[in-house]
Amino acid sequence: MTSPAPRPGVLPRTGAEDLVDALLYSVSHDLRSPLLALSLSGQLLRESIGSEATERTTPLLDGMQAAAADLERMLQALTVLSRARRRPLHVRPVALDALLAGGEVRGAIDGMDVEVDVDLLREFLDWCDAPLQLEQVPGGVRLVVAPPALPEYEGTPLHALTRSLQRYSGTPLERLAVFEVAFARGGVALVSEDGRVLLDLPRAGAASG
Description:
A hairpin with a 2-residue loop joins β6 and β7. Residues 1-16 have low confidence and may be disordered. The protein has a 5-stranded mixed beta sheet with strand order 2-4-5-7-6. A two-stranded antiparallel sheet has the order 1-3. The longest helix is centred in the middle third of the chain and has 30 residues, at 57-86. It starts with 14 loop residues before the first helix and ends in a 7-residue tail after the last strand. It has helices at 15-30, 32-49, 57-86, 96-99, 118-128, 157-163, 165-168, 172-185; strands at 91-95, 104-106, 113-117, 132-137, 140-145, 189-193, 196-202. It folds into 2 domains: 15-86; 91-202, 2-Layer Sandwich (Heat Shock Protein 90), CATH 3.30.565.10. It is of the alpha+beta class.
């Protein structure tokens, strides 16, 4: 059995976290006016030129439209991240065998209770829509599943997304980064490697002994 991947700590609701939320929110909204101006300008120019468009003007107009689409994707990614950081979580003990029936089990985990937001976990598994494996690790259970095909990236999904919104927004990596943020707030580690996602679910009561 391989050693468990490092678990990120629970993200506390501190003043700094609130500032990050506010920054994400304000940036996404402050960019909406330029997006609207860019979209409308491109539309008006295309309509005014009409049939007089040339081989020179058409690529320029197409470029404006593509830039507006890129900006809209990036704004949507920021908005989704902000919502994930503010999403109410309902972490509670739940029987693993009832929650994840049908998975391939490795190790003695029958009857184990884990602490997780059930709705978030089910949302994640529905998104993956792939067979899963379960194995016991110190302090809980590791769930291994293959997500939708991901683009190549370095670091964690969240770090990659924030480093290059233009490249990764709108791809499956954006969605995985959102899950990474939401799960970490509930004390659940999400690590991706070799095209798989490793999700460490803490055993109920493990922190208290």
